């Protein structure tokens, strides 16, 4: 090859690269199709064990903590009750109720890997994200991004809808179930002439599974003159601008602690914007905004003392110990924050994605460290008084999607399943 041909060859490669980059930036065809194809290839490469072998690789992580099941328990310092665990147990995706010592109080005989096979790309392509347990043993859960499902204590499906709900589920004072729903393609002339994805908030009737209310978050921003909040994320996450991972209604019993809000207002978490919002339950306008300290957060909760607590996944780096997650308390009136618990070299705690927390009646905090397959309870002084490790095999743990403490009366007595 002569030097002239080399120049032409290099120039052609450069032009092809530049053209491809230009097409990708402007999102012109065939960029969307190419991204979809590459996404499918990337998923196949990451989850080849699920596709080829009989192993739920998507739900597995290298083990960080020793032991299996309950590895620490101080019942006299714990919040009494039973703990509902949601996640991968062996090769099943299901729910377990355990006591303080880890004894199994109840396991729902259902496998969420088999709930909606028509929606699955392979046997293990499913995720439980968000649960509510009722006193009679019924559970409502999100088959993440696909459906909300209600099952009884015997694992029988009572209803299943197809509203693409995901992440959290919270009940309001009337029993209605609130959850985010996957972004549908929308457009707005002041944001983009091309479609983009933005979540909606939905309220589900717990008796039938039917949708009772829908709030598009694009309409919330538009009505509140806050479209600019979505601008940066629109350029980075066009298919999922907001990524709402929690919506919690303020109860009438707790409303007095939040004079700036009203019963029925909705606390919303946007992971992609690293923000918390409170949306007026009546006008659907943005009432409150918190931005700054959070990074990839999950699970904000109203608390009886008038604060909002939140699971801050990426938190700040622990001194000499690498990254650490934290539980943060926010005063919505002043926007001042304080750290309730943060991982440290002495008490590791870190999950870059997912995770839940529950502030218990005795002041302890029950934390779900999803990616490391652990749930643990800490005192207000940061002492671990209960810890559960979800062992899969000698080297791996299974994700724990949620751990929540319920009164002991929630443990079903007898089988009663025919």
Outline: globular
Report the uncertain regions.
Answer: 20-27, 31-41
Counted beta strands: 27
Q: Return the average pLDDT rounded to an integer.
A: 88
Helical/strand content category: mainly beta
Strand order of the largest sheet: 2-25-24-23-22
Helix content bin: 10-25%
Radius of gyration: 23 Å
For the termini, the CA-CA separation is 79 Å
Helix run count: 5
Largest sheet: 5 strands, antiparallel
Approximate strand percentage: 35-45%
Task: Describe the protein's architecture and organization.
It is a single chain. With 418 residues, the chain is mainly beta. The chain has helices spanning 3-26, 31-46, 48-52, 217-223, 231-236, and strands at 60-62, 69-73, 82-89, 92-98, 104-107, 128-133, 139-143, 147-151, 157-160, 170-171, 177-188, 192-204, 211-216, 244-249, 266-270, 275-279, 286-291, 298-302, 308-312, 326-330, 337-342, 356-359, 365-369, 374-378, 384-389, 396-398, 400-406. It has a five-stranded antiparallel sheet with strand order 2-25-24-23-22, with no helix packed on it. Strands 5-4-3-27 form a four-stranded antiparallel sheet, with no helix packed on it. The protein is globular and about 55 Å long. It starts with a helix and ends in a 12-residue tail after the last strand.
Give a brief rundown of this model.
The protein contains five helices and 27 strands.
Give me some keywords for this one.
single chain; 418 residues; mainly beta; 5-stranded antiparallel beta sheet; 4-stranded antiparallel beta sheet; 5 helices; 27 strands; 14% helix; globular
